[in-house]
Amino acid sequence: MKKLLIICSLLALTPCFIFAQKPDESANLKKLHLYEDTLKKLGKHLINDTLDVERKNANYALIKTLVSALKVPNSFLYPFDSLKSITITNSPDSRFRILTWHVQNDDGSYRYYGTVQMNGGGQLKMFPLNDYSSQLANPEDSITNSYKWYGAQYYKIIHVVSPKSYYILLGWKGYTIKATKKVIDVLSFKDDKPFFGMPVFDGPSKTRKRVVFEYTSQASMLLRYVPDHNLIVFDHLSPPDRKLKDQLNSYGPDLSYDGYLEKNGRWAFVQNLDMRNMPDVHDDQYIDPKKQDEAEKAANDN
Predict the structure, then answer these.
(1) 3-class secondary-structure state, position 289
(2) Would you state the torsion angle of the CA atoms of residues 75, 79, 83, 87, taken in this order, to the nearest 10 degrees?
(3) Rounded CA gap, 113 and 99, in Å?
(4) When comparing pLDDT for 300 and 254, which is higher?
(5) pTM of the full predicted structure?
(6) How far from 276 is each of 30, 72, 120, 256, 280, CA to CA, in Å?
(7) What number of CA atoms fall less than 13 Å from residue 36's CA on the CB side?
(8) What is the spatial distance between Cα 173 and Cα 175, in angstroms, rounded to a whole number?
(9) Over 70: is that where the pLDDT of 126 sits?
(10) Half-sphere exposure of 269 (CA within 13 A, CB side)
């Protein structure tokens, strides 16, 4: 087998470049199948192991295996579609894809992992993501890079092309035992490096660089893009009692909808949307990872 020059790795949290001569496509495909099988097994341990140390060990092994898989030439074209523990989301223009997943801690909190893999043809380039969530005091006001990522598990990428090209990311963010979050983030590239956050969300009350929703973990929240209307629509969240207005972990959907409407590259906040004549408003294409974890555990118990 011809040798590859590997400059860096995912574990180093720096971009990776791989230069290779023309690969044996059949052999590479076989390798990717084997790596996928290993990742599936590790993913089950990541979800089902009851001890914190076992989940973390499985995650460490999963990272190493994923790095090896992504080093295979043309791995960008391989979908890894049987993986349930890793969410893989492609940009609409096929410029990149983002692989994200989470590990739940014993205290019910979450840590996120991921990488942005660029579509480089014969050259692989990726930007590992370091979850910096706990250090960001004001995430809605922060622009960060891949080393200071506001971790989330992304399920939708929207490409905004005018007047400046950037990408909207919709993500799920398990937070604590009592609270869940969802995120509208922005990914842009400067000097071919990824940056997160951009002051394009106007209102309510201020301009945000990303939008973060927090609500009770007992509820599900709609956060969905409606392309025919250039609209991101979401449940309006409110407390069950006015006395709980300062406790975001008590909030839940109140059967009304708000949104962000895109125009000329900016997103204007709109209230009380009429959803009766709007297509694709249900979040049925996205499986909440917490519910997916429960389904995985139930299947293994049986």
Answers:
(1) helix
(2) 100
(3) 8
(4) 254
(5) 0.86
(6) 48, 47, 43, 12, 11
(7) 14
(8) 6
(9) yes
(10) 14
CB-based contact 175:150 (threshold 8 Å): no
CA 118/CA 98 separation, integer angstroms: 9
Beta strand 266-270 pairing with 166-174: unpaired
Q: Which of 28-37, 211-220, 271-280 has the lowest mean pLDDT?
A: 271-280
CB 70 within 8 A of CB 124: yes
Hey, is 28 helix, strand or coil?
helix
Cα separation, 182 vs 91, whole angstroms: 19
Higher pLDDT, 301 or 248: 248
List for the chain the helix, strand, coil content (%; round to 5): 25, 35, 35
Question: For the segment 128-148, what is each residue's pLDDT rounded down to a tens digit?
Answer: 999 999 999 999 999 999 999
> What residues does 144 pair with on adjacent strands?
196
d(Cα 166, Cα 174) in Å, to the nearest integer?
A: 25
Give the list of residues 6+ apart from residue 244 with CB closer than 8 angstroms, or none. 250
In this structure, how many other beta carbons lie within 10 angstroms of the beta carbon of residue 5?
A: 8
Who contacts 101 (Cβ-Cβ below 8 Å, separation ≥6)?
A: 43, 46, 62, 85, 86, 87, 112, 113, 114, 153
Which residue type, as a one-letter code, is found at position 169?
L
Q: What does the H/E/C string look like for 39-83?
A: HHHHHHHHHHCCCHHHHHHHHHHHHHHHHHHHCCCCHHHCCCCCC
SS3 198: coil
Write out the two tokens for 115: 């990488």
What token pair was written down for 195?
């940056």
Q: Report how far residue 159's alpha carbon sits from residue 186's, in angstroms, rounded to the nearest whole number.
A: 10
